[in-house]
Amino acid sequence: MRTWKQFFRVSLAATGVMVLAASVASVAGTPEQMCQKGRYGAAAKYAQCQHRAMGKFFGGGDYPAKCSIPQLR
């Protein structure tokens, strides 16, 4: 009886470790996915800057922002 309880606990712990490792690996992504994430993030920042600048311009103000394209590595 005791060996079954030990087996169950060990197998449950091993399963938990494998599930946790798989979820962490899927969050990190491949190098290509991380590169694309960086590109989309940079494009989003640039678009946000442009929208804010045009909103200020058409709202009666100057064209205050100089939006630059971030350099990607």
Describe the protein.
It is a single chain. This protein has one domain (2-58). It is rod-shaped and about 80 Å long. The protein has helices at 2-28, 31-58. The model has no long low-confidence stretch (mean pLDDT 76). The relative contact order is 0.08. The protein contains two helices and no strands. By secondary structure, the protein is mainly alpha-helical. Helices cover 75% and strands 0% of the residues.
Shape: rod-shaped
Distance between the termini: 59 Å
The tally of helices reads 2
The unreliable regions are: none
Mean pLDDT: 76
The count of DSSP E runs of length 2 or more, i.e. the number of strands, is 0
Order of helices and strands: HH
Helical coverage, percent range: over 70%
Question: What fraction strand?
Answer: under 5%
Summing up helix and strand content along with how strands pair, one would put the structural category as: mainly alpha
Total of domains: 1
The rounded Rg comes to 25 Å
Largest sheet: none
Essential attributes:
0% strand; mainly alpha; single chain; 73 residues; 2 helices
What is the element layout, followed by pairings?
Blueprint: H1 2-28, H2 31-58
Write a short abstract of this structure.
It contains two helices and no strands. It is mainly α and 73 residues long.
